UniProtKB/TrEMBL annotation, chains A, B, C, D, E, F:
It comes from Companilactobacillus tucceti DSM 20183. Keywords: Exonuclease, Hydrolase, Nuclease. GO terms for molecular function: exonuclease activity; nucleic acid binding. PANTHER family: 3'-5' EXORIBONUCLEASE YHAM (PTHR37294). One of its GO terms (biological process) is rRNA 3'-end processing. InterPro entries: HD/PDEase_dom (IPR003607), HD_domain (IPR006674), HDIG_dom (IPR006675), NA-bd_OB_tRNA (IPR004365), YhaM_exoribonuc/phosphodiest (IPR050798). Pfam families: HD, tRNA_anti-codon. Residues 158-279 form the HD domain. This is Metal-dependent phosphohydrolase.
Length: 310, 310, 310, 310, 310, 310
């Protein structure tokens, strides 16, 4: 099937894509139109759907997969598609993963893996808090992106990033026996769970009001506090203070938004493997789009460095 | 009455002072002794009380006011007192404010002032949360210092600093009507309340375990969350998110430990008046000890600057 | 009366506005035109006046209020007006404050307020220097903006910002009796007076040559030196050195252009209230243009933060 | 066997220790003495050996294990031992690891492990360079410390740190198949090998002249260049440029002494696991000396943070 | 002869210029074209050469001087030339220096000057290494630019910058006799020689693969190492370590890419005169394009400052 | 003649030295003493002169050269001399330069050199201002140090540093003809002249009140303003604004206390040669005390680097 990237200027396009953005607007000629952005795995292209009824606005909302026919053109220096025909595909038969990036592991498999992982959290308080919060935010956790841009910015990205970190945590705790494996894994499980509340949407990710004003670190701390109260776990216990410290300090530095720097061996390691997994994801994403023997585009989240593909 | 600072090396000392530190230890000769630090408003001097019984350790604990007789000496380059006699004074008749710095306003007067202040918090949710937490930590709030060192580092310092800030807040909100006075005052009341849990002791101030691992900003946020649950106030309401944002952002910058920078006009002002009152307190404290026409000692909390006394 | 912001693309515009910029140029077709920018309180829009004579260039200079008729269009992605008719209004009957932002207090009222303020400067040397310089730069002070962009960037902004700071100074000096009120107010009066020389123009503000090469802090210091010579006040006296230190250090940090950091309690406070008043002005200006429940545009002078309007 | 730390002031000491520093000097009374520092795993203590002959200076040189008898005393505020008797032990029967920290794995075992590791470097050029340089600096590599202070500052520390990093590299390359395992392991093997030339001594580690003027990063780059010439490997090949980039960039940031920041996925990962292994080593070393439920001493290499032992 | 800058929009252009960039592309209408950039000393202008054959692509490659006839137009807000006729000039009769900036001294004169300079390097090892490397990279050294942008970014710029620095070095060494003149001059000669390998092209300068991955500092260090081996000079000698230190540290600060900061008086001076000559070059280049009494454009390499032309 | 550095602990000292500090104090035994510091070119040693009369305090004031006899001892870990006899030498016959560092050029020679230099300042306004201020502060200029610590911290250091910079300025202006030599030299002459007012004393250098509160940059700017008024030179002229800019900007960066960064080619060069001459002086001073083949002590003013003596 042809992809957005395959067409050149002036070409007739005919392909399937998902609607990434959809705004219903009034043109200066008094007519309504939909300002759309189409996306498949190869890239994005905007287009206007003219004389749109309110019904059209409902049919072509964010997340709808469509058959798109039109002509590729340049407008104000940027590519757009002049739409000839637009038809929604049946959402039941569509395989979303053909259009947008998703986690390379199936949701069900990830859910099963986490069930096994919880068994490794051998401390009762930590285990109960983790299970409680994974149950409370189950759906959001397995569908959210891990970030608005930068790393793991796709559906299921949060769960996939968390899973990768747990795998690193297991291996590192095995290599260095002085590390409390249960604490490290509990911290890894919870560290970014506040993003389910900080961000909204999986295709068109935005910050929520709470996300903007409190941040995901404070949000997950609040959730742990409320979970402990619900579960009647003593918040003043060393265990609970340490678990909260793990998530509070996981950005590593005050200037990155952690109100405390790591003061536990496990908290330092948690920060390090968060950086490691996020870096590998960002670099790999950029290299995937790079030709062998060339440098990638500059990566914002990696201090604007370009990486070499060999 | 003579003060610690009045004595020179070799002098016989005879004065009243408060015990600031007290450690019960075993000397290399097998005997027990108390390692003490005496303090009055003029300064401090350490001394050892030899052949101390466990009973002595109980009699001469931190906060006890004593009649001290001994000889001022130099040991390893620093002054100490060789104790001849040490006798506890009757704590009922002693006026503590003669020995240690205290707030220049009486506790009772401060308590009454805060009762009036609460009336200015005209938003129901904020008013109830502030009253609830002031009731919960009433005693600690009126006896705590506002810091281990730096500004308002004395008994009642936390309440006095908070009161000064509220007075600034009232005047500034009156001058700029676009400021939400109730929000600014509610934020000022709560901003440092977490220090009642972050720090312990009023004479010999130390960080608690929670203080070290979570910090006073996260601690007060936890307290607001628990108060809202107790009072059945919706934590997701704009009012509660804004109140929490006020305390979370009051350090102004991420690198000073706030997980979010101010994003409300009132939050920015709260940060500014916190800095203003703390700076005036630190500079004034240093200038009080400086001769007219001279520069003060360098002030650590003011980027090590010396200030001129005119 | 309709405002610039009220018109959409393709609309016929008919409104009154002031000319903010006016450049007389030669087009590639050999004809002259005026490149104009129109402004009212709702915003700005550029437009070209074709076949302009030199006489037109004189009639439509910066500051002229005009009746503007034309069509709103988009050119190279930005709005412009295609002018049909342009007619100057009678400058005698026009109320400028309807077109450009001005201080919310009338100039005469501000002048009277400053007369009262001078009475609070009870030190003879400071009082005479302040009065001398306010007389010397009287007109410029009451018409200048306080900055090219950022805060109080409007006609009379300098006087209004100075007045707000004096009001803060009065209240703070009353709350903290250790502050020398006369010194703080004298410093507040003079702190930005050098901007009358650093900047030129009130509508189309630019840096002067002296402003660019010396900066307003050095310029006001020079003015104080010359005033003292004129008034036969001893420049080596503690009073004069302290007054100069107040203005030299009011940016607070070397990296913000102060050659000395504050070394007087009053100098530290002056810096703090300068920041406070400027911040409140910048945030309020942005929030005025923001819908309730939304975040403002990012504010350059506030480290690019967006603020929430509640 | 009693340790240095077991003795209190005034105690008679009798123990075995290794000589960590030894300086032959002339006292003001015209007599020679040895200024010694004794060390066992519990700590250090200095002492003077009076009336020392040149023969004594030879007998009691750095690295000698001795039977030490004397009295613990305080001199200028610090503990020292007044030596009664000092006798060298037979170096053939002494188990050095009882006196100084050494790698927790035996040298022979490490040597064997590296033989296996080389098999994983499946690129011919890299494999030959690594083998060549490990052969050239074989002894130094297995006896050097990895640093003068901070992390892995003990005999064999360089090899042990390198080995730990290789183990991390293997696991991470297995988890992320996009990583070139051979390149990552080759980089890990060589990254700190220049320290064999940058530092001298294993007990009393100092910077060499080359170390001071060139630094270990430039030194290992030079070694790779010379190795390639010796082995007739093309220095301009992509393989050799990438290998050199791995070691040049492994400090991650210019301000930490890398002349280039990482521009290969493998180079970024190499930097991350260097930080990870060094951090774990530094924190663990500090926690080993800390009581449960207390904070460690502040760790210089970890931005002066104290870590909590749970 | 008319220059690019002399033409206004709509003018017929007729002038001689050099081709600075040349890309052979396929238009959406299926025809081939050359995307060209023309340059003379007054500036640049792009233009498209339509229906270009592969032969045209060879005739109009980078560096060709052409007779250009066409019309100046605006496309997407930027000037371009609509080409009517394009004819290559005879490269044998063309004086390149009329079209592109070149060093103000002729290459032959510079070559002779360097011959004299080598005589001042009175240390045998340094003299031989410098002569060896100047011979090895003779042509590149005298044709390279000293940078991609910023200072001395023209053909021969590297040699001219080096020569200016040597002249400064001579004068400073004469004024301060404690400076080792031979070392300072040897360091100046070699400091940027690695740029002959780091950069490619003289008109359209780009980083090479080695340049990107190793940087010119490491590259010249490698060259010195190889030269010493070739010349059988002891790399461990103080002389060679010092020479390498000179080039390694000449950026002065780690964050500017030097792996070591200067630790020799001569290395500190070398860094200072590098900054001095580069600054004078950048400022002078900007002032050359500035009218008297105006400020220049902002200079990127001078922290974005504008300089005043008097 | 023996020097301070030649004596070891316990030795009888007998030498000539200058008194660097002298404080008259009351001991705890009720007797007066002089707390003295003696200095010769080899170093310093403190000592107490017991039972000192007020007459003794006058005889042994700062700057007196004395015959000192006593015993070298250690007190609280630092060397001191126990004075047996102290006798003032005849100030008329004493050669001060044998005891304290002075400029390596005689004052008279420097005065003559400056007379020649003034001839190079070919701009009338600059020439008159420079001559006026050199006359006004003639004695102070030729006796002051250039700094309290760091570079040129000796009698005549200010004149010597200024002279060195002028020599650099002459050579650089000759090499780069685009530099306005007269402006550069005028700026060099005046740049540090404010230090004659900022600092007091030549042996025991301290900041004055004006120095502390205004800084030497603002002080020299004030002096130029007053000179221009005295000489009836127009302060608003381009010439005077540029001259003031030269001295205002010579620290190069705001964070080093310049209220403006250099915006003239000549101002940038002035800053660079100030850094160059100061660096050479600081490094040379440290290397003078260093053995060949060793590293110097760390130099505070050079970011704490140690330099290698070859």
């Amino acid at each position: 099937m042809p992809k957005i990237i395959d067409y050149k200027n002036g070409d007739q396009m005919s392909l399937e894509a998902v609607i990434k953005k959809s705004d219903y607007r009034l043109a200066k000629n008094g007519k309504n139109f939909l300002s759309l952005v189409f996306e498949d795995k190869s890239g994005q292209i905007p287009g206007k759907f003219w004389d749109a009824s309110e019904d059209d606005a409902r049919r072509f909302k964010v997340g709808t997969v469509v058959q798109l026919d039109g002509k590729r053109d340049i407008y104000q220096g940027k590519p757009q598609v002049i739409i000839n025909h637009l038809g929604p595909l049946d959402s039941n038969t569509v395989d979303m993963s053909q259009f947008i990036q998703t986690a390379p592991i199936k949701r069900l498999d990830m859910e099963n893996e986490f069930e096994d992982i919880f068994l490794e959290i051998t401390n009762g308080a930590w285990n109960r808090v983790v299970r409680y919060l994974f149950k409370k935010y189950h759906d959001q956790f397995f569908t959210s992106a891990a970030a608005k841009v930068n790393h793991h910015d796709f559906q299921g990205g949060l769960a996939y990033h968390t899973l990768s970190m747990v795998h690193l945590a297991e291996k590192i705790a095995d290599q260095y026996p002085q590390i409390d494996k249960a604490l490290l894994i509990a911290g890894a499980c919870l560290h970014d769970l506040g993003k389910t509340i900080e961000l909204s949407g999986t295709l068109d990710v935005e910050y929520t009001f709470e996300g903007n004003m409190l941040g995901h670190i404070t949000i997950i701390d609040e959730e742990i506090v409320k979970a402990a109260q619900e579960l009647k776990i003593d918040l003043d216990s060393e265990d609970m203070v340490m678990l909260r410290h793990m998530v509070l300090s996981h950005h590593g530095f005050l200037e990155y938004g952690s109100p405390e720097r790591p003061k536990l061996l496990e908290a330092e390691v948690l920060h390090d493997i968060d950086v490691l997994d996020a870096s590998i994801n960002m670099i790999s994403k950029a290299l995937d789009k790079t030709e062998k023997g060339k440098f990638s585009e500059r990566i914002f989240g990696m201090d604007n460095r370009a990486f070499y593909k060999h």
